[in-house]
Each structure stands twice: as C-alpha cells, then as structure tokens.
Amino acid sequence: MIAGLMPDADNRALERLSATMQRSRALEDRLRGSALDVNAMMMLARMKADGGATAGSLASELGLSQSKVSRLTACLIDAGLVDEHLMPDDLRKNHLKVTRRGDNLLVELSQVFGADALSRVCEERSTLLHVKAALGVAGEMRPSITELVILIALRLSSDRLSVGDLSALLAMDQPKVSMALRGLRRKGLVTAASLKGDRRIHLFSLTAAGESVWQTVESRMSVDTAERTAPIAEAVQNETDESSAFAHASESGQSNN
Q1: Could you tell me the pTM of the whole model?
Q2: 3-state secondary structure the chain
Q3: What is the pLDDT of residues 164-176, one digit of tens each?
C-alpha cells in the first residue's frame, strides 16, 4: 500500500505501484473471456477470508458500489463460485459463501500468482476504490481508477512522463493511457509539454489542481486499509496447503495400492 509517503520513498512507492499494476494486468489476462474481472476476484477472496459476507459488507469493505456488488455477485453465482442463503437472523439479507469450485479457483490463482501477490492486488485495488470515493465526497472532479493510477504515477515520478513511459511503467496499453490522460487534462489535473527536439512526444505532469487532488489521495492512502484485506493471503494459502495435502495423501494411497 502506498501510505505516508516521504520524498525519499517515492521511488520505492512507484516501483510498488508498477508491480501491482503488472500483477493486476496479468490477472485480467487470466480472466479474459469470462464474465469475471479483478473486482469479482477481490470479492471472492474477501468472502473466503471472512468465511462469508453480505453484499452490503462487501461494498463497504472493498469500496465498491452496491450496484456493482450486486452485478458481480450474480456473475459469481452463475459461475458456481458462490452460493447465497437467507440469513437466519435477518431474512431480508442474503449470506454469500464461497463454494468448493470457488475455493479451487482461488487455489489455482494463488498457485499461478502466489497467495501474497493475489492479496496485494486485492489490497491495492480496494485502497484505490476507497480513494476514488473519498475524492467524490471531497467535491473533486472524480477521476476513474485508471486516471487515478496515472495521477499517482506522475506525482511519484521525479520526471515528467510520456504516454510510452506510463504504458511501460503501469503495464497498460498506450491507447488506454492516452484516453486517461485526455480525461485528466479535461479535468485540469495534468498538463503537457512537447519534448524538446521532437514535438510529436508530449511529457505530462500535474497541474496545481492535480497537486491538490494528490493531497487528498495521500491523506486517504495514509489510512491503513490492510486490516480489511490482510486475511486474504492467509485464507488462500490455507486452502492451497489443504489441497496440496489432499493431493499428496491421494498419491500415497495410490502408490500403496
């Protein structure tokens, strides 16, 4: 998590942001072609860590809107990854719980990316969603998640960055970066200057308004959200260990026979 940043920590924070975005991109690639996305996996991992959840608790803990949680919950149920049951103490609410198929998917993803890496993506994604919501409450012209990530990267970088620089740093396609930069410029949060000697290349940096948004971002990111997501790695790792132990026991039984 990017928290309590000091100037001498900017480079490390930028490297961490870059690594997180690369892991997130790899996870998106893995899920491509399905109805699921990184937010759905974040919900699934959160449910696993908590032993179940309600739609309301997921929205609050992860920074997602109620409508998005409802839509993704339906996708998870349709995919057989989550079951829902009425809560005995409140029949107006549904309790969501990860199925065995959902457990297996989390194990598969943790084996591909590592349980800690999966937890880190969920943690950083949740933090960005909460920051985005905080900017809206503060009355700022709310940037998208992509715009927010680019704004953070520009603020942490010691130099102005081009579209190509940002694309490589954040593992984003250049058209996606360009579109986000256009949005940030319309909001008055970034400015561009032509590269000396090659006017086709533009270098981007934050405006005074962008710096003001950064102050809100930094103050929000200094709030420790790890307690919402820290159990995810442990829960996924435990499931991985159990699956490995079962597989080992099965192999031993077959060899004995």
Answers
A1: 0.69
A2: CCCCCCHHHHHHHHHHHHHHHHHHHHHHHHHCCCCCCHHHHHHHHHHHHHCCECHHHHHHHHCCCHHHHHHHHHHHHHCCCEEEEEECCEEEEEEEEECHHHHHHHHHHHHHHCHHHHHHHHHHHHHHHHHHHHHHHCCCCCCCHHHHHHHHHHHHCCCCECHHHHHHHHCCCHHHHHHHHHHHHHCCCEEEEEECCEEEEEEEEECHHHHHHHHHHHHHHCCCCHHHHCHHHHHHHHHHHHHHHHHHHHHHHHHHC
A3: 999 999 989 999 9
